[in-house]
Write a structure and sequence with these properties.
- The chain contains 13 helices and 12 strands.
- It is α+β, with helices and mostly antiparallel strands.
- It has one domain: Methenyltetrahydromethanopterin Cyclohydrolase, Chain A, domain 2 (2-Layer Sandwich).
- Helix 3 crosses helix 8, helix 4 packs across helix 9 and helix 10 crosses helix 12.
- The longest helix has 15 residues.
- It is globular, with a radius of gyration of 19 Å.
């Protein structure tokens, strides 16, 4: 059986061996857990973000860098290819574990989730890891304490000495990259929400621009979301029923949501509550599905360079994005 934690641990070991050139800081907590700082106090960088994203996918996905053109401007972007996406994206990469301990909070993603299995999602995936090592990726600005590490290790059923924690805030280079690299996963999550069995997906490929880094994490959340909502493109190969796919594909893109059409940060300010935003908005801009069973192709959605430019580059009417 594929072990996303064992595969991710090998990538982390490579990161530790090249920590200085990656711009990351490695430390060990009293419990023996290792912490890799990719942007809290350490500078991090492009390669650190690439590694972070590939760790998130449990070694089942690869990330490359590429330029993406949007009308009269371009942005650096990522290309993400994933095999076994139900495992690599949903059982590993999806940020579904909120780590809360006293005053500490960070969103947890990555392979350790497949050991802790604290989410109902795993009932639909029929996957669970059994490794004796755990790798978790945290999106936050506060380095984890030993108490946090012990909590995570306990939930995973491992010795804390076998825990590896990667962390970067949203407003960082590595943070921007690893979130854009969720473009394939975001489409899968939307399909889960729509009731589709994502175990029928054979492979996935996607592209998304890398968000410009804001000094404020809340603004950064807006920008990183916009990268996927307004310019994320995904391509899936599946084995499924044609009639089901014809109906499904029209409902996947972000444009199918009533909340589509303005920068995410402005939407958040409008509602004043993240959870009041339509959850079905969170999906790529454009989706292509190739059904391997019939050979048919299904496409839906569109790119929106205007909203993206307003969010990331302040191009709307020449004023900064807010």
């Amino acid at each position: 059986m594929i072990s996303v934690n064992q595969q991710a641990a090998k990538i982390v070991e490579e990161m530790i061996a090249h920590a200085e050139s990656l711009g990351i800081q490695v430390s060990k907590l009293p419990s023996g857990a290792q912490v890799l700082d990719l942007g809290v106090q350490a500078p991090g960088g492009l390669q650190a973000g690439k590694y972070m994203a590939e760790v998130c996918m449990g070694g089942l996905g690869q990330v490359t860098f590429l330029p993406l053109q949007f009308g009269d401007y371009w942005l650096p972007g990522v290309g993400v290819s994933v095999d076994y996406p139900a495992i690599g994206c949903m059982a590993a990469q999806y940020a579904g574990w909120a780590i809360k301990r006293e005053k500490y909070f960070a969103m947890g993603s990555g392979p350790a989730r497949a050991l802790a299995v604290v989410e109902k999602l795993y009932e639909k995936l029929a996957y669970r890891d059994s490794a004796d090592v755990a790798v978790i990726v945290l999106e936050g600005r506060q380095l984890p304490t030993d108490e946090v590490a012990n909590y995570i290790a306990g939930k995973c059923g491992i010795n804390p000495t076998n825990l590896m924690v990667l962390i970067a805030p949203t407003a960082s280079v590595a943070g921007s990259i690893q979130i854009s690299a969720r473009v394939v996963e975001t489409g899968l999550h939307k399909m889960v929400e729509l009731g589709f069995d994502v175990r029928q997906i054979v492979s996935g490929y996607g592209t998304a621009p890398i968000a410009t880094v804001d000094k404020d994490d809340l603004h950064a959340i807006g920008r990183t979301n916009d990268c996927i909502l307004y310019s994320g493109q995904v391509y899936y190969t599946v084995r499924a029923d044609d009639a089901a796919l014809a109906t499904l594909v029209e409902r996947i893109p972000s444009s199918a949501s009533n909340d589509y059409g303005q920068p995410f940060y402005r939407l958040f300010k409008q509602y004043g509550d993240f959870y009041k935003i339509d959850p079905l908005l969170f999906s790529p801009a454009q989706v292509t599905i190739n059904n391997l069973t019939s050979g048919k192709i299904y496409r839906a959605g569109r790119l929106n360079a205007d909203v993206l430019g307003a969010s990331l580059l302040g191009l709307e009417r020449g004023t900064p994005a807010t």
